[in-house]
Every structure is written in structure tokens, then in C-alpha cells.
Amino acid sequence: MAAPEKPIAIVTGAAQGIGLGIARALALASHRVMMGDVDRERLEQSARELQTDGGDVVAQPLDVTNPDEWASALAALDARWGRLDTLVNNAGISPRGTAETTDLALWDLTLAINLKGAWLGAKACLPWLKTSQGVILNIGSTRSTRPMPGLFSYVVSKAGLWGMTRQLAVEYLHAGVRCNMIAPGWVDTPNERLLQARHGRPDFPAGVANLTTPEQVGAAAVYLASPAARTISGVTLYLDSGLHVADDAGMVFFPDTRSLPFPQRIDEE
Predict the structure, then answer these.
(1) Is 223 annotated in the active site?
(2) For the segment 185-198, what is each residue's pLDDT rounded down to a tens digit?
(3) CATH says 8-244+252-259 is which class?
């Protein structure tokens, strides 16, 4: 009997942090993974590391806000593997700002990457996923349903992603395509450390309890992409040790936003 084909996944924002953790977990679970990111140099380095560890992965430069780049990515995927089973919409940014201090450029950029990029990915990949009866995994946040001061455009974008997850689950129920959201709490990533340091917490994550790791997000993605999760759709899986029901908004330091210059440099998650 021939061995079953390895499932194929696309992971966006995969050069580092959460996206890299997801790509690594899927590769270790015998998925073939297309790793997408705008940071070509870091993406290629991360892909080489996973390949050295035996991962069947390929680096694909990808700006999720650009439909043409989605078309190029899928053309490359077609030429290499000819199918798609899982789309992981992970690419995102987490700028600071209130409703008043967020300017139009920052709003547009956050919504373009965090929300429009996920829609463009789903739109481009759905014809493939309907054929394979695959799955879309959106990487959201506890803040999608538990807002926090100082994260205006981020919270709104992730709340939109929560709604999109449920809408896609409903629209494609009878096509056999599932859509779920993974919602981590605070995650210790290189960019989160830089962001926290710039806003007064150079010691982050010291003193923060129950941090989520990229590896834990990756493990959740492996499960939700597996046949064991075949009947799970429209669900938000919180990976935050209960933060969404027992919120401690003081667990991470935020300076008085009135004293902060906005907009500031943007950081990818």
C-alpha cells in the first residue's frame, strides 16, 4: 500500500516568532510547509534551519496585503506540490496607540496586515482548500474578545479576525472547509521583547506569569490541522492560561499613553 501523501501547509509571517514556531511544529508533524514572509533574508535563514533539521519546507517571499504576491505564492506551490491542505494566517503587527493617538496611516497599515491580509489569503487559497477539504487557521489574540487600553488598532483588527473566522466557517461548512482561530495570550518572541523594551519593560518577560510559547501555538495548529479535529470549525482556541476570563491587564507594563509619541515604528508579531 502506498504511503499517504504528506499534507501541505502555507504559514504566513513565518520568518520568526509565532509563525516560525508553527512552521516548525507542522514540519515535525510531517507536513510540507511553504513559509511566507516579507523579510526575505530572515525567512531564508529560518527555512534553512528547518531544512537542516529535516523539515520539508520552502521559503516564499510574501506580502500578505498584495493579491499579486498571493498569486505568485500559489503558482509556486502548484509547481512544487500541486495541492494545499492548511492555510495559517499568522502575519501581523501589534502597534501601540489609543483611538486618539492612532493616525490614519497606522490604522490602515494595521488593518491591512492583520485583517485584509488574512482575507486575501483565504480568498486565494479557498479553491485549493475546497478540493482538499482543508482548514484555515487564523492566529488571533486574547485581545480579540478581551480589549486592553493602548492597543486600539490591534484589538480592532483581531476582533475583526474573530468575526472573519466565524463567517468563513459558516460560508464554507458545506464545502468541507473548516476555519478556526488560535488566540494566544502574551507570547515571548524576539519582536515582543523589543516592543516591550521600547515602552518601558526592558526586562520583559521577567515577572510575567503563564506566558504562551511559539511551540505551544504550533502544537495547537498541528492538532487543528489534523483529522482528529475534522468536526471542529468556527471555534476560538484560547492559549492564555485563562487570561480571557480572568484578565490581569497589569501583567505587562504600559506607560501612560498620553506621554507617548504616536505613531511609532511598527513591529511584526
Answers:
(1) no
(2) 877 777 777 777 77
(3) alpha beta
